Structure formats: structure tokens, C-alpha cells
Amino acid sequence: MFRSLFLRGLTLFLLAGAPAVRAIDEELPNDAAANLSTLGRAPDWSELEKFQATITHDEFVHLLDYVYCTRGYNHDVIQIEPDLARILTRSGTKDYFVLHFAKSESDRLPLAHWWTAPAGLPKAPEGKPLSGFRIALDPGHLGGTWAKMEERWFKIGKAPPVQEGDLTLRVGQLLKARLESLGAKVTLVREKAEPITPYRPSDFDETARKFLERAGITKPRENFDGPADPEKEQTVGWQRERMFYRHSEIRRRASLVNYRLQPDLVLCLHFNAEPWGDPSDPTLVDNNHLHLLVNGAYLPNEVELDDERFEMLEKLLSRSFPEELELAESIAGAMAKATGLAPYRYKTENVTAIGANGYVYARNLMATRLYHCPTVYLEPYVMNSREVFARVKAGEYDGKKQVAGKLRLNIFREYVDGVVEGLVEYFKQHL
Ligand SMILES: [Zn+2]
Description:
With 431 residues, this protein is α/β, with parallel strands linked by helices. Helix content is 35%, strand content 14%. It contains 11 helices and 15 strands. The strands form 4 sheets. Strands 4, 7, 8, 9, 10, 11, 12 and 13 form an 8-stranded mixed beta sheet that branches. Strands 1-2-3 form a 3-stranded antiparallel beta sheet, with no helix packed on it. Strands 5-6 form a two-stranded antiparallel ribbon. It starts with a helix and ends with a helix. Residues 140-141, 164, 270 line the site of zinc ion. Zinc ion (ZN) binds next to loops.
């Protein structure tokens, strides 16, 4: 705890000169009694006051039913009346936040948010179609020496290991240069193969123990036997690592996006994978596919968590969804064309297909939920497919080359081309 309090003090000190950045209180361990997600913070519901009378009853219900609560929800925690909604603020109490609806579309009060949709930008100069648009690129995961810990690492024979966090960072760097050449203002949320959270697994030792205790595991094992250990989730070691590389890291990125970068769009860059078993002797598959995600499809038990319910409403009320859906569809269409990949078909219940082209799903991921602006999450390519493995092994090269039985661009170039084309297309339609 000493280290974490020290680092927190240091962080607050370093940020003291930047009024736009608030204390990073999201990363403090949970209040044991609170009904919050891992490392979540108790919400300040007064932050939703700015949304009073900015949405009609019908639009609110439509967004709940078709985007955010597609799997249903407990009608005790969100109660809807003709002119208002009552939202439970804290589980176990009878305290509600009351949201008043606008009486009609014409009565809606204007929304205030930092981001601007392409349609709201001034006319772009010739050759710079993305002029003035601020994009934050979020290369998924950490890569580098962290890739094994975050289980985004596999190795086949003498080939260099495949590490998702390194692939996404390379895509981010190439994409940044391309988007800037088209006039966009681009930042990388992560610029190297290192975490941006100042915390480390040992800072979450106590929180991991509490988490396991609450899950009914009273005498947890300390360590686990590698990624294939079937009971790793019940160990302190695995939980505290996960709290570091996933929860703390993504919450930290959200603080950076929301309080400092404040972009018009975040693109979360990932590569997909199918289960590969032993990372030193991974299973290669024939499947290869593409899909994109936007925030939505909360499960009923997620809506019951105080922080996720609050964050869902913040997301819904900010109306980033229409932007997200159109952008995701445009990027998905262009990526499908660039890659020739078929849409991924989920076999799980935690998503809802959305839009018309079959590539876009709503899903409640931490990043899509926590970033307070339009956010699109990209999942092209199955890293452990025979084809993608061969392409990653081939690395970067100019022009086209025969790889995995076909003449093609290098995989990084193809990824970047698809995203750029999709964004440019979207701007063409909306400027
Ligand atoms: Zn990923």
C-alpha cells in the first residue's frame, strides 16, 4: 500500500498544474461495501444534471431497448414514467437520480460536450478532408515485456513471438502519420510498449484478496501455473496482475482521454484471436474474420452495478451512439473491402448485432464504456490463423508480395488503408 499511496501522491502532485485533469480516484481500491465493478469509483450523479431536458422519453426508451439494455434490465433500478426517469443511485438504498425528459424534440435543450461530429467542422481545405478532427488512437494492450503477463503472446518455432500489444502499437504509429497527412490532429493514448498506469500488480495485492473473498474464495492460492492453469482466476497472483494490466491501465487511459486529450473520436486498435491453448505450442486455426464494437448490450447484472449503470447513462445521454454506429459501419465497410474478411459471428450472449452490414456489434467493454466521446473498437484478423501468422511473420514490406498463397500488401498497411478509407468516406458523406 505504501508504494501505491506514494505513487498516487506523486501523480496528484505532477498533475497539480493541469486543472483539466482530476484526481485519478478511479484506481483506488473499491469500497468493500459498494456495489461497483473492479476498481470502479462511486459515481457522482450530479454530473448527469447537465443532461436534464436534453432527451425525449421516446428517444431515451429507444436507446435503452435497442442499444444499451438489449438483454433487459431490472425495472426497479431504472423506472420510466412519461415525463421522467428515476435511476437508482446506490444499491441497497432508495435514492434515485431523477432525469426529466424534454416534452418534445423542439423543446430539447442543447447538449454540451467537448467533441465535435464531422458535420460540425468548418469546411476542410483541398486535400485535407480530416482537417481539424481530433482523433485519439488507443493501441490495445501493452506488448513488449508485458505481453506474456497479459496473455497476448504466443510463439511458434524459431519465428519471433506474436504480441498483440506490439502489433497494435505499430498500426497506431502508421495510422497516426496517415491521418495527420489528411489534416487530422492525432494522439496516441500509448506511445510505447509500456503501461501508462503508475501502478503495478503488487499495488493490487489487497484488492485482489478482497475480490476473491467476496467471490467466496476464502483461502486462495497465491500463484498460478501459467496461462493454461484452469484455476488461475481463483489465485491472488492472476487477479492482481489482471487488475494492473487491464482494469488499472484502461481506467488510466480513460482519465487521459476524458480529462486531457478530449478528442472527437477514439479508435481502439486490436487484433483478434481464437483460443490458442499453450502459448509455446499454440493451435493455429483456419478461421479469420473482422468485426467492430461500439458501447451497448449491457447485461442485466452489469446494469445493477452502480458505476456501470451511471456510465451507461452518461454514454447514452451524451448521444455518442449515432456517431459511433455510422463511423463503425463506414470503417467496417472499408476494412471488409481492404481485407476481404468475413464478419465474425459471436456465439456468446454479451453482444447485440447492430447496423446493417453485419460487421458491427454493441458490447459493454471497459474502453468503449469509459471514454466520454464517440469510440469505435476494431477487431480485425485472427492472429493465430495460419494466414495472419504468415503475414505477421512476413512483417512490413513495400508494395505487394506473395504471402500465404496470395499477392498482398503487408498486414499493417492493409489495416491502416481500411481505417483511413472508412474515415474519409464518412467525412465525404457528412461534410
Ligand atoms: Zn485485443
